Amino acid sequence: MSKADLHTHSIYSDGTCTPQEVVLAAVKAGVRAFSLTDHDTTDGVSQAQAACQEHNIYFSPGVEISTREHDQLHFTAYNVDLQNKSFQTFLATNRQNRRKRIQQIVSLLQKAGVDLSEEEVFSRAPNTVSRAHVADALKEKGIVRTRQDGFRKYLLPGGPAYVPSAGVTALEAIQQIKQAGGLAVIAHPGMVSGIWNFPAWVEAGLDGIEVFYPAHSNAMRQDLLALARKYNLLCTAGSDYHGPRAGRILRPGMRLPQPHYDKLLRVLFNI
């Protein structure tokens, strides 16, 4: 089994490492095929690409797009045309919608008696702001112990500062990826199994499924492999690595069976 990681994040969204540091961690973990998929921005891609070239590992330019249908219904895009003006405008609009969501969250926190300002959040996010930055600001002020505590106490559905995702629809996300010449893959589908709509997604142009993901059980992987066979979809692998200080996955890289790895090389890297 070979290792790939086509789902990672850097400081350009809610990761805690530079693109170069993420690539270096992947190299140390034995990853041979890599993509940086920051939320709604490709600004870190060129740095990641240069680092992959330096370390002689396969690289695909990527990005992750959220939807408003569910907080965890996301699509990763690979091999997108980074110079596509329409796609970059689309990403910029998504980032602005994220900013509005965070402003609403901060307002709700303040109404709940939490001492937190917009500046304390936005200063942590040079590009794409997210709930993770809110949680990190709460942690820095000693209001919560960890990023995860911030989510659990305030930012998840039912919490006092929860605001639904301001993303696009799933079909819009897929269509925008395809129009930019990219491959569209549903990220961590096991987290949204209750709202699967593969017939519509495939009709819109879905290319793949992130089958090999840390939170997927063996049973879930088998279900996803069956869906991939049914719809002739690419099976991808990603850790959703955010860096060691994020308190989640501590190392990048996911093992996947050799036939799926070989197909990734053919489809994404023309190997």
Structure explained in plain terms:
The chain is of the alpha/beta class. The protein has ten helices and eight strands. It has helices spanning 19-28, 45-55, 85-111, 118-122, 131-140, 147-155, 170-179, 198-204, 218-231, 258-269; strands at residues 2-5, 33-36, 58-66, 74-78, 183-187, 208-212, 234-237, 254-256. The protein has an eight-stranded mixed beta sheet. Helix 1 (19-28) packs parallel to helix 2 (45-55) and helix 5 packs across helix 6 (147-155). The protein is globular, with a radius of gyration of 18 Å.
Strand fraction equals 5-15%
> Reading side by side through the largest sheet, how are the strands ordered?
7-6-5-4-3-2-1-8
Number of strands: 8
Summarize the main sheet. Answer: 8 strands, mixed
Tally of alpha and pi helices: 10
Distance between the termini: 17 Å
